[in-house]
Amino acid sequence: MDETKRDRPPAPAWPFDEARKLQARMTPGKVAVFETGYGPSGLPHIGTFGEVARTSWVRRAYTELTGAASRLVAFSDDMDGLRKVPDNVPNPEMLATHLGKPLSAIPDPFGTHESFGAHNNARLRAFLDRFGFDYEFVSATERYRAGTFDAALRRVLACHDAIVDAVRPTLRAERRATYSPILPIHPETGVVMQVAIARADEAAGTVVWHDPTTGRAFETPVTGGHCKLQWKADWAMRWMALGIDYEMSGKDLIDSVALSGKICRILGGVPPVGFTYELFLDEHGQKISKSKGNGLSVEDWLRYAPAESLGQFMFHAPQRAKRLFFDVIPRAVDDYLANAGKLSGQEAAARWANPAWFIGGAELAAGTPLGFGMLLNLASVVNAATPDILWGFIRRYRPELRPETAPYLAALSEHAVAYYQDFVAPKKRFRAPDGREAAGLAELAARLRDLPRGVGADEIQTVVFTAGKTAGFDELRAWFQCLYQVLLGQDEGPRFGHFVAVYGVAETVALIEAALAREAAPA
């Protein structure tokens, strides 16, 4: 990479701010290692997408800034013990008999993989591959059993008491008595044991503990997958063992990050550079919870909008709490389309501030002639049940366009019809115009009739403004609100001149006349 490019002024985008923090940590020649973590007791969700996407954007900024090599590790803690049976899996009775065992040691309730952990790991990889993320998958079970963590685990054994002293003040009274960062796997039941350690033998590399049910004593090696670590200690250990340089996490883990960082330092490691992102809220402003099922899923979003728009939503203001519900989708789509359209003509510094540069897909999306909001409003006026209805208007507006030659617009049309049917149509409410509004609508219809064929959207917009002014709308916002509520049955709408150009001048006149005729008819 051109050295002068790296010397340019920093780009005003948060991933570059993060990349510069990482750059300050790195030593020459070291490959920067990014990490995202995953608990495979459940399926990947929209938060998984957000964390991997945001981490990938920081990684791209780091590459652009430094030209140095990097890796992204997607780590699955599949040795974690199953604490409760998830609500959304088959064979819950079977799973209930394996509570406490590592996820990688529990039969797959779906019957497709060798274990429940392997099934969910496969779902994670398929999920990440679907979005084209560049990552290396790492299984905790494989690394524990292969001995990758053995040296770090012996270090945990050597620092056992110091780690206990660091963690114990953060625990409830009943857990303080039994806490150990080392969780032996019961050699007979296979359960991950959260028990007090009677003796930590650094020389032998073992721990001695007692079965709380039978009282029997066991001596277990900490290496080779015979033990795992409590998750905060595990997080700290793998930061050191895998050489993790960067990892972000949600606001709910601020205290855990601080404690894991302290443990990492006790072990002699250096915690990674971190970034705290805010959590999402539902439509009522409540925190989104997997167990509650509020908010929306990745599958929900992708039914109504392209994947790049989800990236756009995730990119903006990650340290601010945002509502993640269906009504944010249209703006996210149009914001992405606007950014994609600007990208190719921008200088480097401007590109580095453009979300589309990080998200990708701009080549397909750039130049899309109709935005999502416009397609939604068109669908609303014609009560579209299929994209074919929209394409009749699109081809009249731009005769050269076809679904097969404009695939991004074709996909947007499908999304728009789905969104309209599920969210717009049920809420449409037409209201009656008052006297001034009726006069304004009649004035607009008359002016539209007088327009020559082939008139452009800007000229039509001027006519719309003039009709409103003539009708006495000094505040044009009220005039456009009239157009949206009376003609479209909704509170917001498109740039009206552009809408008329797409829908058709004669069709808009007919729309106005029908609205006025409805009001003239007896109740």
Walk me through this protein's architecture.
The chain is built from 25 helices and 12 strands. It is α/β, with parallel strands linked by helices and 523 residues long. Among the domains are: 1-140, HUPs (Rossmann fold); 298-426, no CATH class; 429-520, Arc Repressor Mutant, subunit A. A 5-stranded parallel β-sheet has the order 3-2-1-9-10. β9, α11 (254-266) and β10 form a beta-alpha-beta unit. The longest helix has 21 residues, at 46-66. The chain starts with a helix and ends with a helix. Residues 1-7 have low confidence and may be disordered.
Helix-strand blueprint:
Layout: H1 3-6, H2 14-25, E1 32-38, H3 46-66, E2 70-76, H4 92-96, H5 116-130, E3 136-139, H6 140-146, H7 150-158, H8 160-167, H9 173-176, E4 182-184, E5 197-201, E6 206-210, E7 217-221, E8 227-229, H10 231-241, E9 246-250, H11 254-266, E10 273-277, E11 280-281, H12 298-304, H13 307-315, E12 322-323, H14 329-343, H15 348-351, H16 355-359, H17 362-365, H18 372-382, H19 387-397, H20 407-424, H21 435-449, H22 457-470, H23 476-488, H24 496-503, H25 505-520
Parallel strand pairs: 1-2, 1-9, 2-3, 9-10, 11-12
Antiparallel strand pairs: 4-8, 5-6, 6-7
Helix pairs in contact: 2-3, 7-10, 8-11, 10-11, 13-14, 18-20, 21-22, 21-25, 22-24
Mean pLDDT: 92
Distance between the termini: 73 Å
Named CATH architecture of the domain at 1-140: 3-Layer(aba) Sandwich
Note the main sheet. Answer: 5 strands, parallel
What is the oligomeric state here? single chain
What percent of residues are in strands? 5-15%
Specify the number of helices.
25
| Top CATH class of the domain at 1-140 | Alpha Beta
CATH fold-level topology of the domain at 1-140:
Rossmann fold
- Sequence stretches where pLDDT stays below 50 over 5 or more residues: 1-7
Question: Order of strands in the sheet with the most strands?
Answer: 3-2-1-9-10
Alpha-beta classification: alpha/beta
Task: Spell out the CATH superfamily of the domain at 1-140.
Answer: HUPs
- Percent of residues in helical segments? 40-55%
Total beta-strand segments: 12
